[in-house]
Amino acid sequence: MSFSALSLNTQLVDTLAELGYQQPTPIQVEAIPAILTKQDVMAGAQTGTGKTAAFALPILQLLMADNQSDHAAKAIRALVLVPTRELALQVQQSFVKYAKGTDIRVGIAYGGVSIEAQQAVFNAGIDVLIATPGRLLDHLRQGALNLNQLNTLVFDEADRMLDMGFMDEIQAVLKQVPAQRQTLLFSATLDDSIFSFSKNLLRDPKRIEVAKPNTTAAQIEQRVYAIDSDRKTEFVSHLVRSKNWQQVLIFSRTKQGVDKLTAQLNKLGVATQSFHGDLSQGAREKVLQEFKQGLVQVLVATDVAARGLDIAELQYVINFELPFIAEDYIHRIGRTGRAGSAGLAITLFSQEDALLLEEVETLLDKRLPQQWYPGFEPDFNKMLPEPRRNSKAAQKQRAKKRALGGKKR
C-alpha cells in the first residue's frame, strides 16, 4: 500500500518520498485514515513502529486544509503531550520534517531550559505544540499560552506519563482545553490503567493494536546470560571490546548504578557516558549527540531518562539488571530492532533476579532460556537461587512490597 492510498495529500506524499519513506507501517495504515476523519483513536503501538508519523501526518494535513483566514493570529490547534524532554525533541523534529514547504509552525515546551526563550517562540505564533506536562502548566499559569482554539490533543506514550506520576498535571491541562476536540492516545502497552484513564477522555474511539499486547518485536533476538553479579562489569567490557560493538545502550535501575557502571567501564577502556535525570538538559543533548556520532561507545541510562530516545539503527541493548516493573523490559529492548531492523537484547541474570525474570516471562508468555558465556560461567559453589514461584499471589505480594518500598530511577 502507498501513502497516497491513505488519502494523504500530494505535498505530504512527496515529502515522505524525499525522506525515503517507501510504504506505510501497520500503525500508519490503521491510524491515518481514522485521524483524517477526525475520529478519536486509542492505539497500542511499541516504539519503532512509526507511530509518530501515524499521528503527525494526518494532523498536518488537517491543519493545511484549515482556512487560516478564520484565525486572527496563529493559534495552537494541535497539542502533543509527551513524558520526557527527549521524546519532545524527537516528536518536534518529526513534525518539522513532515511540514517542510508548509507555513505550519511547530513549538516545543520542556523543562531544564529558559522558559522566556520558549515564550518568545510562542509569541511569534505556532500551530502545533509538543510539550511535557509540567512545563506546559508553567506556561499556562503565566498566561503565555492559550489553548482555546485547540482541535487535536495527543497523548504520546501515555503509559509512561502515568508511570511517571503526571496524572495531576494532565488533569490540570484538560481543564484548559475545549471539550469538543479530537483526542488521540498512543501507548506501548494497553493495560487496566490506560483503559481507566481513557474512559472519560475518548469518545467512541477507534481502537488499534498493531501487535499482541506485551509482545516484543520479532526481529529482536533476546539472550539471557547467567552470570555472577561481581563479574557483570567485566563481562560487558569483554563483549563490547572483543566484538568491537558500537552504540551500545545499557540499562541500570538507578542513577547511582548508572554513574558507578559508567566509571567502571571507562576505567576498563570503554568510552562510556551516563544518561539520567540529574544531568542538565544541555549535558544530556551533548551526550546523546556524541553517542549518535560514535564518539561515545556505550550509553548507560535509567529507564525514565531513556524513554523516547530515537537512535537510528541501534543494534545492542543490555539489561545490566532486570527492571523492577516487567513492562519496562519491553520498553528497554524496544530501543533496538526499530523500523524492521535487526537488534540484539542481552540480559545479565544473577540469582537475586530470579523472581524478576519470572515476571518478565509471565508478561511475555514465554520462557527466556538462560545461557552461559564461555569464560564467564556462574560459580556453582555459591548459593543456588530459591525455587522460582509462578503463582499470581507471589507476583502480587512482590508488587505490593515494591509499592510500599518505593522505587528509584
From TrEMBL:
Region annotation (Disordered) ranges: 379-409
Entries under SMART domains matching the protein: DEXDc, HELICc
Feature: compositional bias, Basic residues: 395-409
Top-level lineage group: Bacteria
Main EC class the enzyme belongs to: hydrolase
CDD domains named among the record's database cross-references: DEADc, SF2_C_DEAD
Motif (Q motif): 1-29
Chain ranges of the Helicase C-terminal domain: 219-384
PANTHER family, alphabetized: ATP-DEPENDENT RNA HELICASE DEAD BOX FAMILY, ATP-DEPENDENT RNA HELICASE RHLE-RELATED
Name of the molecule in the record: ATP-dependent RNA helicase DEAD box family
Organism: Shewanella oneidensis (strain ATCC 700550 / JCM 31522 / CIP 106686 / LMG 19005 / NCIMB 14063 / MR-1)
